[in-house]
Structure formats: structure tokens, C-alpha cells
Amino acid sequence: MKTIAITGGIGSGKTVVSNILRASGYPVYDCDERAKILTAISPEIKKGLISIFGENIYGEEGLNKKLLAERLFADAQTRTSVNSIIHPVVFADFDRWRSEQNSDTVFIESAILYESRFDKFVDEVWCVTAPQEVRIARVEKRNGMPRKQIEKRMASQLSDETVLSKATHVILNDDETPVLPQLLNYFPNI
């Protein structure tokens, strides 16, 4: 089974590419969405996060996502510690999911493909990119997040140059260049 990663920074348009692939019948594993679910249900993750942040990281309504995000994007060491707890659980979940798929090709969407080291388990990497101002505008509109917070998150991710240099294929998603024809160049079966 061929495994292709879809990566790119926040607001680059990874989900646009994933949605086209899903609409074409391909299975796509969304690391961010699964990580959100797993942080709510995994005893291993819950125990690890409590060991780092204390009991107040989980409240009556579950994980305190705002507090977690504030701490994650404020300190690289904290981010590394949290990722060392979450990534193995997400990878095990992905591995189980992949084994259940009835397809010659599966896709994994991950904003932090290289930081999580998931790139070691894929055959190709498709990097979705867009100009920084386009990305910021998208995230402001989608999440209602202030510009400074978006820039902080962007700074916490690998640079576009680094990710692009490692990619098998690059997909420009600048709101002017159509995405589908680019995908068809790389994967004609869509």
C-alpha cells in the first residue's frame, strides 16, 4: 500500500487537497483531527498531559484546549514534551487505520509531518504552500485568531523553505492557481 503525506504550514490549504482526494474516493487520515479526538479519549495522553501541566489541564468539559494551546506555542521545550506523548498514540492510531483501508493508496494529512517524524513512514510527500499573507487571512477568517497568534504558530512550524526542499511534489494554493490540475499532474487517477 502506498502512503502519501500531505503537509504544509497553517493556512496553506492542506484540507482543500484532502477534500479533493476524499471526494475522489481516497482514504485520508487527518492527524490534527485524530489528535484532538485522541487527547480526549486516550488514557495514555491524559496521564502524560496531567504530568506536564497538572490536573487543571482537564476540566469537567474535557481538555482545556485554550490553556494547552497557550502553553504549546509559548515554549518549544513544552511543545517537544507534549508531542513526545501525543505523536506515538497518533501514529499507532494511524497504523491501525491504514491496515483497515481497502485501497492501494492512502493519504495522511499532517502540518508537522517532519517534526513528528511521520515522514519516515510515507512513500511521497506533497507540500501545499501559499504566500504568508494569504495563509494569515485564511486562518483569521477560519478561526477568528488574531494575527500575532497566527504568526506565533507559523514561527513554531518548520519554515516553508525546509518543508519544500524535502517534498516530492509541491502544490501551490494561492487562491489564483487551480489546485485540481496540479493534483492531476501528480496523481492522474483523481
Topology:
Blueprint: E1 2-7, H1 14-23, E2 28-30, H2 31-41, H3 43-53, E3 58-59, E4 62-63, H4 65-72, H5 76-99, E5 105-109, E6 124-129, H6 132-143, H7 147-156, H8 160-166, E7 169-172, H9 179-186
Parallel strand pairs: 1-5, 1-6, 2-5, 6-7
Antiparallel strand pairs: 3-4
Helix pairs in contact: 2-5, 3-5
Short description:
The protein is an alpha/beta fold and 190 residues long. The chain has helices at residues 14-23, 31-41, 43-53, 65-72, 76-99, 132-143, 147-156, 160-166, 179-186, and strands at 2-7, 28-30, 58-59, 62-63, 105-109, 124-129, 169-172. It folds into two domains: 1-27 and 105-190, Rossmann fold (3-Layer(aba) Sandwich); 33-100, no CATH class.
Q: What would the keywords be for this entry?
A:
transferase, alpha/beta, 5-stranded parallel beta sheet, Rossmann fold, 190 residues, two-stranded antiparallel sheet
